[in-house]
What does this fold into?
Amino acid sequence: MKKYDSNDEEGLHDRRGHHKTDDKVDELERLRRENLRLKRQIEEKENIELAELIREYDDRFYHILGYRRMTVWINHFNGKNYNKNRIHRIMKKLVFQTFDKAIVASPEANPVFHSDRDFQYTSKVFQAKLRENKMEQSMSHVGRCIDNGPTEGLWGIIKSEMYCMYEVTDEKSLRKAIESYIKFYNSERPQKRYGCKTPAEVRTEVLETNTPIQYPIPENKRIEKYKSKWIA
It folds into this structure.
């Protein structure tokens, strides 16, 4: 029994590595082995359900939750008591799955991968994936919220225009409005900085030439003010 307790199912092998059959182990050991298998099956099913919850809450909170806050919200709203380390492992796995799907969709792309400093993107495993696919990693600096200025600016545009274009009454209509507006923004909304072209038109141009046009980056007075005050 001590051998089984310390080595799990490996304890059921003899010195030559042969697996002991059920008729050669006592009843208690056999029951414990069956219990271990059942426990693994239950955990696998729970992990699938938990992964769906994580996806749901990740979308609901616009991908801003780290694993600690994700644990708090899931446990609070679902009456569960999931361990944060378990949620940590599943969130890392989901990030890798999404990354792998993107690689399959665009195998020849070698983009700059920009993200915040969350645990999924700072792990050695994920950084190895980036090197394997010849991608350069980019992250916001510590304490430099202004690095996310372009993204926050886009969300500001979405919020100021979207609610004037679509009726939003609940979560379902909000999701539909965001999806519809982003399609509009990319394909139908011309921008002055691009010479009255849409982002989709500019992207097509870039993909069709080795020397794409360098469009000017408009000056943002708030960002410049921040830099002059806080950045030497």
